[in-house]
Amino acid sequence: MSQAAIELQDVEYTGKFSLSIWRKLFAYAWPYRRQVVGLFSGALTLGGLEALFPLVTRSVVNEAVAHGAQARLWVCALIYVAFTLLFGITVMAFIRLAGWISSTVSHDLRRRGFEHLQELSFSFYDRRPAGWLVARLTGDCDRLSNIIAWGVLMDVVWSSCNVIGTSTVMLSLNWRLGLWVLVIVPGLVLAGAYFQPRILKLSRAIRKQNSAITGAYNECIAGVRTTKTLVREEHNLREFQAKTGQMYGDSVRNAVLSSLFFPLMLTVGSIGQALALWHGGRMVLATGENPHPDVGTMVAFINCAGSLIWPIWELARVMADLQNAQAAAERVLGLIETEPQVKDTPEALAAMAAVRAHGGPAAGEALDGGPRDIQHVEFRHVNFHYVEGQSVLEDFNLTVGGGQTIALVGPTGGGKSTIVNLLGRFYEPTGGEILINGRDYRQRSLLWLQSSLGIVLQQPHLFSGTIRQNIRYGRLEATDEEVETAARLVCAHEFILKQDKGYDTEVGEGGVKLSTGQKQLVAFARAVLADPQIFIMDEATSSVDTETEQHIQRGLAAVLTGRISFIIAHRLSTIRKADRILVIEGGRIVEQGRHRELIALHGQYYDLYTNQFTEERTSEVLARHAPPAAAKAAPAQ
Ligand SMILES: Nc1ncnc2c1ncn2[C@@H]1O[C@H](COP(=O)(O)OP(=O)(O)OP(=O)(O)O)[C@@H](O)[C@H]1O
Ligand SMILES: [Mg+2]
Question: Which has fewest Cβ within 10 Å: 136, 165, 360, 460?
Answer without folding.
Answer: 360
